[in-house]
Amino acid sequence: MEPSRYIPDDLDRRLIAHLRIDGRASLSKLADILGVARGTVQNRLDRLLETGTLMGFTVRMREDYDDRTVNAVMMIEVVGKSTTQVIRKLRGIPEIHALHTTNGNWDLVADIRAGSLADFDRVLREVRMIDGVANSETSLLLSGV
């Protein structure tokens, strides 16, 4: 099935919600939680993976796992039609954990995770040197609430 042709139903959405909480849950546990047969869960998982709705499973870590990591959000303004080239350059910076397009005054939002303040400073300079970046504003993320 093509990803664009498969629309997850309520059971799929509930399955995905439980996997977000515990990506290592067994098929039996998921079947019990969802009130369906183990085979149904297996078939749904297979279909979600086959269609690209689920792309895999990952590890979630506590926000404070590594207190030495510098976390920040950078809003970026792009000049004219250079967004594609700017995104390509930003994706090449390993400390940029996630990148999003947005609306409003800013064109892009970057989630930055650097190992030290020196690395963070280097990332800021690298981003500001990219042709097409007109302006940026960065906020350090201090603690989760």
Radius of gyration from the CA trace? 20 Å
Structural class: alpha+beta
CATH class of the largest domain: Alpha Beta
End-to-end Cα distance:
41 Å
What's the architecture of the largest domain in CATH terms?
A: 2-Layer Sandwich
Strand order in space, largest sheet: 2-3-1-4
What is the domain tally? Answer: 2
Order of helices and strands: HHHEHEEHE
What about the largest sheet? 4 strands, antiparallel
- Please work out how many helical segments DSSP would assign: 5
Helical fraction equals 25-40%
Shape: elongated
Report the count of strand segments.
4
**CATH fold call of the largest domain:** Alpha-Beta Plaits
Fraction of residues in β-strands: 15-25%
CATH homologous superfamily of the largest domain - what is it? Lrp/AsnC effector binding domain/regulation of amino acid metabolism (RAM) domain
Average pLDDT figure: 88
Low-confidence stretches: none
Layout: helices, strands, pairs:
Elements: H1 10-21, H2 27-34, H3 38-50, E1 70-78, H4 83-91, E2 96-101, E3 108-114, H5 117-129, E4 133-140
Antiparallel strand pairs: 1-3, 1-4, 2-3
Helix pairs in contact: 2-3
Explain what the structure shows.
- With 145 residues, this protein is of the alpha+beta class.
- It folds into two domains: 1-60, Arc Repressor Mutant, subunit A, CATH 1.10.10; 70-140, Lrp/AsnC effector binding domain/regulation of amino acid metabolism (RAM) domain (Alpha-Beta Plaits, 2-Layer Sandwich), CATH 3.30.70.920.
- It is 38% helix and 21% strand.
- It contains five helices and four strands.
- It has a four-stranded antiparallel beta sheet with strand order 2-3-1-4, with helices on one face.
- Strand 2 and strand 3 form a beta hairpin.
- Helix 2 packs across helix 3 (38-50).
- It is elongated and about 55 Å long.
- The model has no long low-confidence stretch (mean pLDDT 88).
